[in-house]
Design a protein that fits this description.
5-stranded antiparallel beta sheet, alpha+beta, about 25% strand, about 210 residues, about 20% helix
């Protein structure tokens, strides 16, 4: 029963997302043809315009940590030049999609199931927050730091995000700051803390063996 419910929710959110994707601000340049064929593609038929990568979500065991499944130009080359991409976001109970940005597109999120606490920060450091319920939509403006958090300790949530770019890009704030080799001393001064604290944060973000 749970698997059927998930399947129905997945279909619903995809239908909603396809209906609203044009509302997302496009970030890709216009092209001079209807579509772009990659150099390594020799046959262009209906299969080229079809992406089946989300099928694995149907009937799959729910993830134990936050998971994003993308349909961007990297996974679906037919999106090149089309100024659109999608992501299915799965939030187990009490999980978070950490602060991050999408440098090339706004993000329009629809929540078919569950509840989420969401927010973004503008360039004046003003925080905009909202608690979303099933059926709600929320837009994260292009390039601004934002997050989503499932505060429900028992129930999961599922969302679909539409982007106005085939390659919106994702810059994770924690990973960018603490896992890219920036000197501990610089980070300690920047965050007005000690080097030991910085090293502890870095250790917590290091890949688990």
């Amino acid at each position: 029963m749970a698997l059927m419910t998930f399947k129905h929710e997945l279909i619903f959110k995809l239908v909603i997302s396809f209906a609203i994707f044009h509302m997302v601000i496009a970030g890709d340049p216009d092209i001079l043809s209807y579509f772009i064929v990659p150099p390594n593609v020799t046959i262009v038929d209906s299969n080229f315009f079809t992406f089946t990568g989300m099928r694995i979500l149907l009937g799959a065991t729910p993830p134990t940590a936050f998971k994003v499944s993308k349909a961007s130009i990297a996974e679906f080359p037919a999106l090149n030049g089309q100024s659109v991409s999608y992501a299915i976001l799965q939030y187990p109970a009490a999980s978070v999609n950490p602060p991050h940005t999408h440098p090339r597109s706004a993000e329009l999120l629809v929540l078919p199931d569950g509840s989420l606490q969401v927010g973004f920060v503008d360039t004046t450091n003003r925080l905009f927050t909202q608690t979303l319920q099933a059926g709600d939509l929320f837009v994260f403006p292009k390039g601004l730091v934002h997050y989503q958090y499932n505060s429900d300790a028992k129930n999961s949530a599922i969302a679909v995000s539409a982007f106005g770019s085939a390659n919106a890009g994702t810059v994770s704030v924690p990973n960018t700051v603490f896992t890219t080799g920036i000197d501990d001393g610089i980070l300690a001064k920047s965050f007005k803390t000690g080097i030991a604290t910085i090293q502890k944060i870095k250790a917590g973000l290091a890949p688990k063996a």
